[in-house]
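Appendix B, Record 12. Input sequence as logged:
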Amino acid sequence: MQRVFLFIADGFEEVEAITPLDYLRRCGADLTLVGVGAKIIRSSRGLAVTCDLALSELIGEGADAKKNAERLAADTVLAILPGGLPNSRTLSESTDLCFFITETAKHGGFVAAICAAPALALGEWGLLDGKRFTCYPGMGEDLPTQPVKGARVIRDGQFITACGAGAAEEFAFALADALYGEKKLAELKSSIVAR
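Logged structural output:
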């Protein structure tokens, strides 16, 4: 079974998480919303979201967590990290999430991040070294590979990054295109009356 996972922690940016979730589920994705640190997560503006699972429920805890994460990552076609500073910091500090995302990339799955998450999570984990990527303006300048300034959405192989909340729809479209291709993307755009 090909799975899509979207990971959030307290302080996530609402539009950066909900837009990809909504659009990909409209395309038929088996998308699971995963809370890092808890099952009920509060957004940057106080919206309480009940996730499908907490990360600890998804992969377990203790000795089996790594083995479970590796098995799940092998079936993951896309892992998504929205932004928001508190969210991105929490995501980057999770060793279990780092392992899962790294394994997803190793198994050929797409890895996507927007706003602060490309720099603070993927960049800190070394996954963007030598890749073209974008992130929130002014971030990522301390990384070995610099972000592309002024870019809204960039796909470099299996990595898809975006600059911020204003690019959330473009980001979601890039994810839909990567998973389903132009025909399905056109159907999605028509169904939501996209510009």
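The domain at 3-191 is CATH 3.40.50.880 (Rossmann fold).
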